[in-house]
Amino acid sequence: MQKINQEAELCCCEEKEIHGDLLEKVNSEMPDENELYDLAELFKVFGDSTRIRILFVLFEAEVCVCDLAEVLNMTQSAISHQLKILKQSKLVKSRREGKSIFYSLADDHVKTIIAQGMDHLNEE
To answer: Is residue 24 part of a domain?
Structure first.
């Protein structure tokens, strides 16, 4: 019971005091709700390990669904489903070459986001 009380003390102020100048600054910089919603949706896309694995493959090369399925030991259908989500989120792009469709990262931001996440995980 003592530990629960200590945790409650760490997350709550002893007295309610509103810091108006701080709140004014925060409110002036806060993105609107639609932007925050879109950002949260983007980060949900990164919440699936299969999609992360696909992105790691695409860090190395532009590949077709056949190649992705082979390297990740998955069906083409499962890969296609995940690629659709990644493409809708503007994280990957595609191009047709004959009967094949090749996928690549949409831009360098994708690599940066993943690299920042890896850096965070590897901090001590």
So the answer is: no
pLDDT in tens, 73-114: 999 999 999 999 999 999 999 999 999 999 999 999 999 999
Look up residue 30 and give its two tokens. Answer: 């806060």
Residue 58, number of CB atoms within 10 A of its CB? 22
Domain count, the chain: 1
CA distance 29 to 116: 23
Residue 89 and residue 38: Cα distance in Å, rounded? 10
**Is residue 27 one of the residues assigned to a domain?**
no
For residue 82, what are the contacts with CB-CB under 8 A and spacing of at least 6?
Answer: 48, 50, 51, 54
